[in-house]
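Example 5.3 — DNA import protein CedB
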Amino acid sequence: MKPSYMLSKEVARKMILVHPPEPRKDLLLASPSHGVYIGKTRFLRTPVFWDPSKLINPHIAVIGITGSGKSYTVKTFLTRASLIWNTNAIILDWVGEYEPWVKQAGGKVINLAKERLNILDLVGVQKRSRIKQIISALDILLDLKSYPNERDEIEDALEAVYYGKNAKKAKNDAGPSKMRPTLADVVKILEEAGRKKSARLLKRFTTEGTDFFAGTSTMDIKKLTSSGLVCIDLHGLPSEEMRSLAGLTILQYIKELMRSEGMQPDNKKVKLFVVLDEAWKIAQDERSDVITIVREGRKYNFSLVIATQNPTDMHKTIFSNIGSVFVLRIILKEFRDYVRNSIGYSDFIDGEISKFGVGDAAVNMIFAERQTRVMTFLMDKIDGEEPLLIYKIRGGEMIIEVEREQFVRMLYEIGLNEGQLNLIKNEFSKGDGLVDGEQLVAILEKFGYARPSIISFLRQLGIDEKNLIRVFSLVRMRKATKGVVNVVLEEDND
Ligand SMILES: Nc1ncnc2c1ncn2[C@@H]1O[C@H](COP(=O)(O)OP(=O)(O)O)[C@@H](O)[C@H]1O
Ligand SMILES: [Mg+2]
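Solution (predicted structure tokens):
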């Protein structure tokens, strides 16, 4: 490296330390019961907490290319929020990637492909409003506005099932659970009236095998919004259209619940996180209730968390109503420009965003306190937690359990590099999380560690003297019998 280059880099670094482009410490810091820890700022290493009482609203967007760490960020955030606040969250999971994590975190997973969601259920709404909502969902999904006749016919049919003669009849001769009309009844009315085209538009949602929205509901949305972490897995539904109808319907119900619960005291304690990951279709339409929730959520303490790889899919209103934006790696100039125009940051940050590694983020937080300027600052790798990832090390007759991240940190501390760490992680994944002590010793010796430092490392892990002796006698035996330590290790010598 040329000295002049190093010098200018050094100067730049000093400049940054004198005028750090980071918000004041007191805005970022919070007591662990008030804020969710996210990670540290890049320059001053200030811990960053997400504290809704300091922010202008509780909404969050996470933007970045596939693999940049969006879902990881959301999961880490929700895990911590649920630990400190026992928070409620509804995750609309398009891709079906949240299930294992939600289960680990003690939450509930609803597989929508195995449930029924009767879209005619009122869930506390007036019939008239529910008709409007259903029509609005169909407007978005079927572009119903382009078929004004069919739109009217469907609306009439909805009125008929709610208010008409048939509705009354159903009430009389069915039990309380069966008296609710379903979309199948709507299709029947349309068919009986010879309104074939309208019937056909709706039939895609009622044909056997795809009648997720036409049966009696098997899920209680209201209850789900107060049941801790809940993942509604939509990926088993057969089409994007179905996933969107489910998403839109669930959001409509959530919106109604939000409004019916009324304005919340100004404590800013989030009542419900509504999480949308890769929900492009319903995030880009201004008629969808994503918009209502982001607009009105603040006064009801409802928080929208939205993650997307394509920021231009996100309706402008969403963008302008979000108090915390996490920009992970974005490469495409068009996308970077769009984000930059929406939240604003320097050329320097723009350049960094295109070079980010996994989990690195530029964060824009709008604080409630009036500030001279709004800030976008850099954070190194969002500090994640992967709950319940435990490594086991068999040391003689005992098995030591150690949390993976902790173990990796300990290895870092004794000086292992990234490649060496990966090799050890590999060993653990091959052994389903379990590695023999003597194997670990062999690897560390191979990396050039002397006996005394290996011994102190194993002690630090909690292996007692008796078992240390066992481990090392096994190491000796292996060497005597095999001559070599391990075949896999040889692969690393590239
Ligand atoms: N901050 C982070 N620290 C460590 N690993 C991360 C981090 N962010 C993401 N990863 C890992 O990178 C991979 C991709 O992350 P993911 O959240 O699925 O990306 P995205 O949702 O943006 O496509 C996952 O294996 C995840 O565990
Ligand atoms: Mg993802």
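Remark. The pocket of magnesium ion (ligand 2) is lined by residues 70-71, 277 (CB under 6 Å).
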